[in-house]
């Protein structure tokens, strides 16, 4: 089997010419990639994008979103920018605007893929671990999609790229009638929302403060989680510094469920109808969904584009793992050195597990060839 072909532009800019700036090179790589193969005339095209959070201020810049939108229009498509709700939908639209993502800046309307309250979704067969998963109705029904992913670290999956974006980003937090068929089904495998060790709890309230749904409270020094409000996102466990809260799921199980969900989202598209772009810029240690962003752990690397999400994530992971850790960052705090596996060592979950599982499920192949802009 031939290797998957990927196109790459470096973030370096050593000439004082617009065409050699990163935006200029991005225009040229978009022109080089065959959008017309994936997009039909007058076809609606979802531009899937994480909108960030209040405090997490490094989502993909509007400059690159606008140029992607313009390229879709040039190919004959009719684009819109979409995302699934992670906080109540109207609040999320405000966050997008705060982060510079709007119709005025990006050239296309913003659409909530699963509605204002996250209830607009369709159950899709996923696999033996979860059975079915609630795919956002807009993503389920739209014929074509361009997935723009901010490649970065993630405390549970090791990294966030195209595959995690398909999975976590393509499904709703929950299904209206079957609560455990949403995003929480990836995080949780048991009836317990979280495992709480009261002996380790300092009652610092970090878990309650980070909850996007206000589902956590303490009564008489006992943890209480409102089942009706909880989306099982796992943020509370991520911010617990004493280990009092933990997810009741193994890393292997989490990665398998993540990729099973990605497979469900992909099953709603015909072959060759999705384009993937990974931005290895502002490579922070955590997801853009968190209410804050630490400094980058590695220097900006560049942008990859292709139509195979497995190959794209494998190439991005290889590049970031090989990068030199930046000083005064979480990487240097942990004593990480050049020549190691930067993302694998950062949070401990092995990110290769997810890519291997995606390849096993037939979502793409790990073998790739990279064509750098201006290569003959």
Q: Can you describe what's shown?
A:
The chain has two domains: 4-178 and 249-372, Rossmann fold; 190-246, Alpha-Beta Plaits, CATH 3.30.70.20. It has 376 residues and is of the alpha/beta class. The protein is built from 14 helices and 16 strands. The strands form five sheets. The chain has an eight-stranded mixed sheet with strand order 4-3-2-7-14-15-1-16, with helices on both faces. The chain has a two-stranded antiparallel ribbon with strand order 5-6. Strands 8-9 form a two-stranded antiparallel sheet. The mean pLDDT is 91. It has helices at 22-32, 62-74, 89-98, 103-106, 137-141, 162-170, 184-187, 206-210, 235-239, 251-266, 309-321, 330-333, 342-347, 352-360, and strands at residues 4-10, 44-48, 78-83, 110-112, 121-127, 131-136, 144-150, 152-154, 158-160, 195-196, 216-219, 222-225, 245-246, 274-280, 302-306, 368-372.
